[in-house]
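Thread amino acids onto this structure.
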């Protein structure tokens, strides 16, 4: 898979994680959803890129 695929999968997983974390912490609303969702997407995308680079370091 390409680096963009890893980034996209990480971003989607990050959004889901952010929204679940928001609900577990008791936050609700549009602004909180945006903050947790966008933060999760960015962090997930970065993590996806790092996983890609770690898996393809020797290739």
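Threaded sequence (59 positions):
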């Amino acid at each position: 898979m390409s680096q963009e695929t890893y980034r996209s999968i990480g971003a989607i997983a990050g959004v889901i994680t952010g929204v679940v974390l928001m609900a577990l912490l008791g936050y609700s609303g549009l602004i909180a959803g945006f903050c947790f969702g966008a933060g999760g997407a960015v962090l997930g995308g970065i993590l996806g890129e790092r996983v890609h680079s770690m898996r393809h370091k020797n290739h």
